[in-house]
Structures are given as structure tokens and as C-alpha cells.
User: Fold this.
Amino acid sequence: MKILIVDDEEISRTILLSKMVHMGTCVAVNSAKTALAELDKANSENQPFDVITLDVSMPGVGGQELLEHIRKKEVQNKIPKNDRVKILMITARMNLGTINACIKRGCNGYLTKPVSEVQLIQSLSQMGFEPATEEKTDKESISHSAGVAEIIKRFYSGKIVLPVFPSIVREIEDLLAEKDPCVDDLAKIVEKDLVISGKLIAIVNSSLYKGLDDVNSLKGALVRLGLKHTLGVCSALATRNLFDSENKALKTEMDKLWVHSFAVATLARRLAEEKGFDNLDTIFLMGLVHDIGKMLLMKVFVDMYPDVCISDKDLQVVIHEIHTTFGGVLLKKMHFSKQFIKIAEFHHWEEFEKDTDKELLVVSLANSLAMELGFGFFSKKDENDTPKFDVSDLFELEIGDLCLEIDDEFELDHDKIMEELSGLSSLKVLGLDPENVFSIIEQIHPMIKETSHAF
Ligand SMILES: [Fe+2]
Ligand SMILES: [Fe+2]
Assistant:
């Protein structure tokens, strides 16, 4: 593989070189002008580059303009689509507007700095390359990065079994979209899934939905829940199954991720209701699966490397930095819609434009709130801290006391939460009043944990 690295900053070029040097032949240049000269030279020697990493913001001709120029030239030279160079855009801070502009101009992927080796491997595997990893991948000497990189490669070559999302959730969605859905039709769908229908009865008899009498039949359970709540409860039951594990250590991590996901779903649904949106059940499901990439990465890691401690913070950092793009591709493979995929990819973004999908905004806001409320998968402080890297240490990420965290002792602090809320771009773009959001949090915070455990 022949790789051209284009970045005006020396440190960024050095980082990329150090991570890609064992993947192929690398050439690093500092401007669009020198990049074009290298490309011309390689083409005239009949040894074209396979991949270009392109810094978005460079003085003079920037990454986007260079990308556009390269693509135009390829069209002029009638180069078939499959033979065109793969271009990976890299920048310090991206927003959706930049991404969309780069996609429109023909990039094949995008990454934010500091770029990790695992992210590079994911992007290159996605483009159809099989990049070599530097470290050994045998059980004894497995490093976290190499382990996750191996999972990514297997995933893209179709060697990893995808989670199966029960079809009844979509069938119920379709039924509810009909003009006059009735409980009998709903029962016909739900009874096909023995696990979900059994659990549904137990949920209806739990303190959350309990009426005067115990419910013993599926139809009775559906009547008590009503058409409106059945889809949400079935979605949650279906998703809960995905977070199950026989492995004790993994189960502990999965349970935390489930509580986090459930909190995000519940908050997103309530915020969407506040805004008067009409697709509340879809938004709830979006919240439930927004971190699905993390779920599968952890499961596969434990399957492949049973001796590794899954709660190890360095491993969690590697998984965290890749869970968004991985989650997006996973949802695509599972045939979820574009909106779901976008949510998996962009829910950690800090800057949103005015025309951002409302579903992405509410789930992202709910994700930030869940961290604030102690339902963070990572502790709040660490997840939002900018990862620091140490040049002398070959730029490995270092994130303080990173940990998986569900805070049992949490108490709402009005001033602190208001301060956090005032800085959230998702809240501003949605046009929500911070005081109003605080009262919503006050109402639903106490029931999130109890409800999440009922599933
Ligand atoms: Fe996430
Ligand atoms: Fe999350």
C-alpha cells in the first residue's frame, strides 16, 4: 500500500507516519502544492498512491480544495471509480457541515485528531485494505490496540457474527403506523417472540406498571400497557437481550452500558415530547442503540481474548475512541435507517449546525445529560476531556482516571447542571430553556435506574 500524508503541521505528520509506517510505503508532505507534485510524480512513474490522508485546514489551498482538485482531475483523466485514490480527511475539530462538504467533494472517510492506529485501521479496512498491524496478536502478547484492530479487520471481512435485533420491533412499528391498530393484531405479533412476550408479562406485573390484579396473559399485559407504550417496552426488551452475557466481568460492564443506554433513551424521549416531536418511540429506540458499537466491541473482545480484563481503562479508551464509527457501520449492516446510523456516529459531537436532524440533537443532548446525572458509561469528567498525547510516547492516548461509572450516590446540583447546560450546543440548537430541562431532569431522574433494572 502506498500512502501520501498531507498536513501542514509537523507533529501531525509525525503522528500519522509513526502509526502508518508499518502499513505501507509512506510519503509525508506539508502543503497542497508538494502533494500535487508527489501525485504527478507517482502517476508518471506508474506507481500511483493508494491512500491519501488529507488535513482539512492548511494555509493556502486547504484540504477540501485539494480533495476537489484531485477528484476533478481523476474525472478528466477518465479513471474508473474503483481505481481512484482513497482519501481520508483528517482534522482537529469537525462539524457535520465540514463532513458533508467533504463527502460531497468525494472523500472516502474522515477522522479527528489525535488519530489512533485503531481508527486508521478501521478506516482503511472499511475502504477494502488489509493494513498490517505492528504488534503481535497472539494471546500472550496481545495489546489492546492490536486486539481491537484485529476485531475491526475481522468485522470488515465478514468474520464477526452480527447481533440479531428481533424483527417484532419493526413489525409493531408497522402496525402502529396503520390507521386503526388493535390489541389483537398486536398480540399476534408479540406472541411470536416467546422471550419478549414472557418478559412483557413480568414487566407489567412489576411495580412500574402494576395494577390492582396480576396479569397472566399476553393480551392482558398489552391492554394494561396500551398501544402507545407497548412499542417502547418491546424495544427496550429486545435491546436488553443484546446486552446479556454469560461472562461475569463482561456482564458487569454490559449492565452499566445498559443503564446508560436506557437513561439516554428515556431522557431523549422526554425531551422530544417537550419539543412536540411525534416520533417518540423511534427516538426512544435511537437512544437505546446509540452506543451499540461499544456493546459489540466489548463482546467480541471477550470472545477473542478471554484472558483480558474488559474493564481495563486503557482497553476502554481504545473501545471508546472507535465506538461511534464502528457503531454506525454496525447499524448499517443491521439495516437500520440513515438517521439511526448518524446518531451512532455523531452523538458525541460538541458543535451542531441549525439544520441538524432533530433526532440527533435530542439523543446527543440526552447523552450529555446522562453523563451529568451519573448515568455515564465513562465518568463525565473524563469523557469530555480532550485526550492528551505525549509525543515521546508515540502519541498513545492518556485519559486521566477513566472508568466505567454509574454513580449510585448522585445528587442533583442545580447550579452545576445549569452551568453545563448553558454550554451545550445541542440544547441551543433545539431551542430548549435550560430551567425547563432541569425540571424535566428532576422529574425523571429518580425513576430511570429503577426502571432500567426492571428489564
Ligand atoms: Fe457514545
Ligand atoms: Fe452514550
Summary: The longest helix spans residues 248-274. Residues 2-115 form a domain with the Rossmann fold fold (CATH 3.40.50.2300). The CA atoms of residues 172 and 178 lie 10 Å apart. Residues 291, 323, 347-348 surround fe (ii) ion (ligand 1) (CB under 6 Å).
